[in-house]
Structure formats: C-alpha cells, structure tokens
Design brief:
Elements (H helix, E strand, L loop, with lengths): L8 H11 L5 H13 L3 H16 L6 H16 L3 H19 L4 H16 L3 H19 L4 H16 L3 H19 L4 H16 L3 H19 L1
Length: about 230
C-alpha cells in the first residue's frame, strides 16, 4: 500500500532535474529508487518515465533503457496499473533478448514479471508459458537449488492455485520449501511464508493434518522472530 505523505525535497529536486535534462541517468535511477523506498510510487513513476529519455541517450537498445523500463513497470505494478506495466516489461524483454540472447537472467526476470501480470489478468495459458520459460532459464544458469529458482517455483505454484490445481501447487511448493530451507535456514521468514502457502495447497487436497503441522511450524518461526 502506498504510504501517504509529502515527497522528500531530494525526490522533488531530482524529479525537476530529470525533467529538464540536468541530471545523469545514474542519479535519476537513485532518485527513483529512493521514491520507491518511501512508498511514493507515483513520484517514482514520474522520475523513471523522465529517466527513460536520459537512458536513450546511450542508444535506444542500450541495456540501461531496459533497466529503466523495468523499473517504471514495477512502479506501475505497485500502484495496480497492470495494463500500463505490460508494454514496459515487453519492451524491456525485447531489449534484453537483443543484448543478451534468449538465455539470460535479465530475460528470465522479465518473463517472470510478465507471467505474474498475465496470472493476475486470468490469462493462465500465457502465464504458464512465460513462468515455465523463466524457471527453465534459471535452472539452467543457476542450478536447481538457487533462491531464484525457488521464487520461480512459488510463482508457478500461485498460478496452479489460481487454476484450481492445488496438487500441482503443493508439489511446486515442496520444492521451493526445500530450496529455501537449504539456502536460508529453517527459521527464515521466507521459509515461514512458504510453509503457509504450502499448507493452503495441502488443505485444498484434503491433507489437513500435514497442513496443520506446517502452519504450526510457520507460527513458531514468526514467534521466534518477534522475541
């Protein structure tokens, strides 16, 4: 949720400088990120939109253009502007593919973001295609026990749940849980979140006792974090 409040002077100044072309691309990106950190997504949107023009000075297909487009898309998404976010992600994806080829983590990130957008719009076939491709790239480049792979598995699980395929979701979440436990430790907040999601999937297929155990364990992790 966007936090209310007046934009910090540094953000306002940065926006003004970007708009009139007096700030570097690096400084503009820092200003946009500062606005995001403050929850001022509308300010971030305006800064990133102006920063695209600075990035294009390096060439229309420079990687920095793709980075800026992706940040602008994230600012849109944070405000629920999914229709506006999609063409930004698509253009960033096109540039990343031209710069890196098809098998690169930047490409996987854009495929993932587009897949999530399609899921939210109920376009499940497109979401499945995009998220599956993102997972395959990450597994190839990072191995099957990387945290980025766990993220891709969780996104596919959310799609499966949206489609009413809780059994498939539970299988994906079991894999994601194993990766996060190995990489983060058994008491990490991300592990607790995965346990809750896994429990919800198991309940949908009638495995209530297992779900209760997972929820209880998640509760213990969260209680420990507060103590």
């Amino acid at each position: 949720m966007r936090r209310l409040g007046i934009a910090a002077p540094s953000v306002v100044l940065a926006l003004a400088l970007v708009s009139c072309g007096q700030q570097t691309w690096d400084a503009a990106m820092q200003a946009g990120e500062a606005a995001v950190q403050r929850g001022q997504y509308d300010e971030a949107e305006r800064i990133y939109a102006a920063a695209i023009k600075k990035a294009e000075e390096f060439g229309r297909h420079d990687r920095r253009v793709a980075v800026t487009l992706a940040r602008l898309a994230q600012a849109y998404s944070a405000q629920g502007k999914y229709v506006e976010a999609e063409p930004m992600y698509l253009e960033a994806l096109k540039i990343y593919q031209e710069v890196h080829g098809e098998n690169h983590l930047d490409v996987a990130a854009m495929l993932n973001n587009l897949g999530v957008l399609h899921r939210k719009h109920g376009q499940f076939a497109d979401a499945q295609r995009l998220l599956t491709r993102a997972l395959a790239i990450k597994e190839t480049l990072l191995g099957k026990e990387h945290l980025e792979v766990a993220l891709a598995l969780s996104n596919l699980a959310a799609l499966s749940m949206a489609q009413g395929e809780a059994g498939q979701a539970s299988t994906l979440l079991a894999r994601a849980l194993a990766v996060r436990e190995k990489q983060l430790g058994a008491d990490h907040p991300d592990v607790a979140k995965t346990l809750v999601d896994y429990a919800a999937a198991l309940r949908k297929v009638g495995r209530n006792a297992e779900a209760d155990a997972l929820d209880a364990r998640a509760g213990e992790i969260r209680a420990k974090a507060k103590s």
